Amino acid sequence: MFYYYLAAALLVAADQAAKLLTRQCIALGEHVTLIPHVVGLTYVQNTGMAFSSLSSYTLLLTVVSLVASVLLAMAVWKDPFHSKFASWMLTLILAGAVGNLIDRAVFGFVTDMIEVLFVNFAVFNVADSFICVGVALLLLYALFFDRSEDKTDRAEKG
Questions:
Q1: What is the tens place of the pLDDT at every residue in 82-96?
Q2: What is the rounded distance in angstroms from the CA atom of residue 157 to the CA atom of residue 152?
Q3: Which of 13, 100, 115, 140 is placed for a possible disulfide with 42 were both Cys, Cβ 3.0 to 4.6 Å?
């Protein structure tokens, strides 16, 4: 159990380091190309959530992030899937939630910097990547690999 929380802390530290470097080395709105036509860095301050939605509700998003982080930490502790893989995915999601929570609580915005150049997509950050990968893999696991209950038991309970 300890290892999940340690991993989450290390991932949060990596996210915060990337955001700190972005704030210190790139001017707000400035773009730096890393791989031409593939990926670059653009410093953006996002007061909302995905695609800058709900940008007028920073306090609400901060509270929701805090509640989500606590619930995720509890889920890691309770191990609802009884699976190491699922616990690692919950840890990844927890790290992303906490990383963005820190930004919202300290700065009133989330530092975004990663820009995919070959498609028109929102600028995002490392924590967002943790959340998206963790949710996608956890969803796939829950849909196709979770064998914690017999499928007939689920149908009867439903």
A1: 899 999 999 999 999
A2: 9
A3: 115
Residue from 128, 146, 150, 153 carrying the catalytic annotation = 128
Q: Give me the torsion for CA of 89, 93, 98, 99, rounded to 10°.
A: 100
- The pLDDT tens digits for 51-66 are 555 555 677 778 888 9
31 strand-pairing partners:
42
Catalytic site includes residue 128: yes
Residue 39 token pair: 């990926």
CB 8 within 8 A of CB 91: yes
Residues in the chain: 158
User: Among all chains, which residue has been given the structure tokens 């956890």?
Assistant: 138
| Cα 93 from Cα 74, distance rounded (Å) | 12
Which member of 15, 103, 112, 146 is catalytic?
A: 112
**Mean pLDDT on 108-130:** 94
**How far is residue 119's CA from residue 39's CA, in Å, rounded to a whole number?**
10
| 112: annotated active-site residue | yes
Report the 10 Å Cβ neighbour count for 17: 11
